[in-house]
């Protein structure tokens, strides 16, 4: 069980790296939607940082490191949610035209 | 000025406020921070579901490729919501068993979310690049 969870941990770090790169590429496509996608990109990068922190030495015993990790997670979640909301508002604006 | 506050100062403040509990970190602080994180991310994934489903419906008529990309993002939103919501139930309720559900399934959804999100972005990127 422990080895499965460890494998998932490494997979997560890699997949969020993929998501961050993809969001970066995607933010450069539209001129109008740039801001929303840039927020999504920043959120994904912060999520990658959050995932990377758990692979640092002494992570399991250091509460400070754990709180910093989840703090970064909260910040990335808020930025990402704001990015999605910005894009949703823009979509509604386009629909009403 | 408003843009500067909105995009530079506000995210920085959010980050600083979120890491403040780290000054006096205990096991209880870790748990509370995780509950807050799970709640924030559940909302973020719900917004992703709403955004991608609305975009999917909007693009469905004319832009098939783009609508498929948004459909993939919608699936990522559902798996992401399940990942964070299971975590929220686990920590807020103090549940530990069954381990396969609260640990393995949850982390499985976590892996799936990152992967599907990445695939969704790549599909959208290539489809839109091709159309330009």
Tell me what you see in this structure.
The complex is a heterodimer of chains A (about 100) and B (about 130). By secondary structure, chain A is mostly helical. Chain A has helices at about 1-25, 35-55, 65-95. Chain B has helices spanning about 1-20, 25-60, 65-95, 100-130. Chain B has one domain (about 30-130). The mean pLDDT of chain B is about 80. The interface between A and B is large, with 47 and 49 residues.
Overall mean confidence score, pLDDT of chain A: 79
| Share of helix of chain A, binned | over 70%
Which structural class fits the helix and strand makeup of chain A?
mainly alpha
Number of helices of chain A: 3
Oligomeric status of the shown chains? heterodimer
Q: Quote the distance from N terminus to C terminus of chain A.
A: 54 Å
Strand content of chain A: under 5%
- Specify Rg of chain B, calculated over alpha carbons: 18 Å
Q: Which descriptor suits the 3D outline of chain A?
A: elongated
List keywords for this structure.
heterodimer; A: 97 residues; mainly alpha; 3 helices; 82% helix; B: 132 residues; 86% helix
Topology (elements, then pairings):
The complex is a heterodimer of chains A (97) and B (132).
Chain A: H1 2-27, H2 34-53, H3 63-96
Chain B: H1 2-19, H2 27-59, H3 64-93, H4 99-131
Helix pairs in contact in B: 2-3, 3-4
Quickly describe the structure:
Chain A is an all-alpha fold and 97 residues long. Chain A has one domain (2-96).
